[in-house]
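Bug #77: duplicate submission created two jobs. Keeping one. Sequence:
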Amino acid sequence: MGIKISAPNLDNAIAGSELFKCANEHEVEEAKEHIEADLVDILEKYVDKTSDGVCVQASTIGSLEALLEFLKQMKIPVAAVNIGPIHKKDVLKACKAKTDIKKEKKEFATILAFDVRVMPDAAKFAEEEEIKIFTANIIYHLFDEFTAYVKQCKDSRKIEDGNKAVFPCILEMVKGACFNQKSPIVIGINVKEGVLRIGTPLVIPTKENLKLGYVQSIELNKKPINQARAKDGSVAVKIINDGSVSYGRQFDDTCQIVSNITRDSIDLLKEGYRDELTKDDWMTVMKLKKIFSIM
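Kept job's structure:
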């Protein structure tokens, strides 16, 4: 049956809480402890306020717990939760998350709302502050929408990051294969480890990290390609620099050439390109970290 409850202090009641029939004050206190324990369990099990994560809002404790369990299985972190309609104060929580998040991971400046209304003032404030609110009455729909948004955010960051994300590679020159000595230097190389991509900055570690320049183009069998791996065999690489480095003077075909990775570039790889690198590629990253003494 449906029951309407009229009582003082209902503003503090939480939708979805259990109802208890209490005969005395002692039973009232026991009921309070039981309900509070449920909320504490949810917070301890699913919410980490110290790390990046989305804000989650649901209509009842039961639906909140169901959504949080699903998000946990999908490995989506949660930084804050609430019950009931979304008000301006709830959007403020997401605004704080956006401020705290490193590198503006705006996919976490988000509210996932399950079976709740978004109040007009909250919707307007969220739009002004660029806080995304996803609403749905089916958990899977909410997940699909958020997943698509995360991909969109990551793709945007990849474009913005440009050449900052330097991929790991260790190269060796093909003996005598120099086709132009000065910028643009054109040489034949074999990729020994990792992946060589257009835009990669190259250095020679044994020459005090001599900077050769940036990869302008890569050709395999006289056809342009965007990247090369060991399986591709020998490729021709065009390297541009400021003219201060040339083949035969500062370096020759006995020198090992590597990509000039940095701590920032490694962090960018971890953040946005993890799925593009193999286990062996990450081993190459570790080798380069030792070469450049990166902690």
